[in-house]
Fold this protein.
Amino acid sequence: MGTTWTNSNLGYPRLGENREWKRALESYWGEKISKDDFLKEMKELRLGYLQKQRDAGVSFIPAGDFSFYDHILDTALMFGFIPERFQGEPDSLTTYFNMARGTDKAPACEMTKWFNTNYHYIVPEIGDITPVLKENKPLHDYKEAKEELDIDTRPVLIGPFTFLKLSKGYDSSEFETKLDELLPLYVKVLQQLQEAGASWVQIDEPSLVPTLTKEDLRFVQKTYDTFAREIPEMSIMLQTYFEGIEYYEDITALPVEGIGLDFVHGLEKNKAALEKHGFPKDKTLGVGVIDGRNIWRADLKEKEALLKKIDEAAPEADKVIQPSCSLLHVPVTKTLETKLDGILYGALSFADEKLKEITTLTDRMNGGSAEQALDENQKALQVFAETYRQQSADLTKQREALPSERDLPFAERQKYQDEKWELPLLPTTTIGSFPQTKEVRVARQQFRKGEKSPAAYQEFVRGKIKEWIDIQEDIGLDVLVHGEFERNDMVEFFGEKLNGFAFTSFGWVQSYGSRCVKPPVIYDDVTFAEPMTVEESRYAQSLTDKPVKGMLTGPVTILNWSFERDDIPRRETAFQIAVALSQEVQALEEAGIDMIQVDEPAVREGLPLKREEWNEYLDWSVLAFRLATSNVKPSTQIHTHMCYSEFQDMIESIRALDADVISIETSRSHGELIESFETAVYDKGIGLGVYDIHSPRIPSVEEMKDMIDRALQVLPADLFWINPDCGLKTRNTPETIDSLKNMVQAARESRESRKLPTS
């Protein structure tokens, strides 16, 4: 055994065990609590999280990972990257939330996925803004922890290379200029931390794991050479995660005191590089062996064996056992999950339990026994493995029996569909959900608690469906939806009705802002039980002569937005879900629902971070979608929806889905996606979301018409649909109605200006 092992955490969930963080945010936004009360509640949460980590035995506790909304937005505001449309507010907190959520006059900053996770960050707008250090947030949090709790934390901040890579509003040729403007400010931040007593700082550079160029490497070298020269006594832990790093030898030679590597999702690449090239003996190696992105218990004996191999490859380096990434991506604690099956419960590990796994491994690697913990760990994993299946031969046979392509190509299907539907050019529709008001949430809760009978709940849901069918007809939409009032979440709803899924009571994680999701747990083979959406869809269709879309969530999105088994290939689970969904698609078609939307908003976020691995993932993702949707008549129109897709990156795969109509979120990027169609031809129906549903502002007719007009410069009118950029469940009723009225009017004016048929 080599040197002494210590441990660290890289970040802790913000939400709180009972979503206290979310409630405080929404109470402040709703003016139910004052700014002072809000800040007081946030401080209590922040300090409580630090105390929990100290009590768990964590050696290096992060400070600065806590945020009121998003850590990238924090960094943008810290360095003064405030777009002009948000300047002028005297209160920095107001400015902060305006950038995240938008105002009546200013659209919110763009929001997109954090690497290949389901967390969203606010994209900084660099433009021609000259950065200034407005507030040293890590310094504030470091001092607070020291003064209030006497904890000497390790401040965390996003590295300048990653921050710029994730930003927009400048040309790639300006990268070095922007970096040169930022580096002195980072130096100032680090100097102030050093003066306050911080001996270590964690600088997160996850952008070192996607494919890099030699020029990128030069920028990274320049950054850390600058830090070493300007603040030589500051110990920097350069932290990477989500995959293996590029240019291992160059990165490990950087003038920093420590480098953190992901030995879960980057295990193969990082371990091979470590064994081949070794590790500098004068640096600390952060060993990320506990999965920070999934909720399964680690096999501690397996992890111990891995740590011993790492020790052999880097015998003289100090080593720190830690999660593979921040624990932001997992729920807080499993101790509240009293309703779960005992065997499944034993196989789970949330944030607090992962900290215990880290301290147990630290004890083992330092010569401690921890035999009781290891025995309990091994027994729980063995019972789980013996109880739940891994792959079913019957499901493989079902998959092989399904068609993987439509009977006719799109051009021929389109003739059948045009004849059947007789829609106007530029047809208007929505993505699926309508406002989940307090009334809806209370009724669902009463039903779940047994306080409302199934019959009474069905009557309530039908009442909401009828209300919104009438509203949609009054607004003048061309293709309607039933509103999804019976659904709590687009993945959880289907997971509850398919075999193989389990659901937690408090397993919440942050998606964006105060928006939280409770991902289902896929613990067994996924199979179809009975029709899931037919009843509501058929009822909605009976209320109108206009087409009503059936609404399903696609197999890859269900997979990506669930906590899936980590001992089964992801593609196999996707195929199981696809087989089950194909049976639902057939049930809808048999019930007379001939427009069916199978949403895949999460396809792009599942892309591997290494481009050379994209094709394999996209191939099986496309196959899963086609397995779910191909066994239908030519006249049945298949729709899908995708979020924040950089269309040009995967246009061939999107085309290969062979959906009749695809809608793509574009509004937060202010129509930039339209640029991709100027060079790439798309020959199927497409709807580019013409307004942002994540912001409470009501877009004007002119604003939406401008986006439509620009799209029609590069897209044929006979293939173009008009819709919001996502579902409307998070919006309130008045703003939803007003926004949709403006959208329909914008479509009418666009038709009239081009002398297109209006009906």
About this structure: Residues 454-475 form the longest helix (22 residues). The chain is about 45% helix and 10% strand.
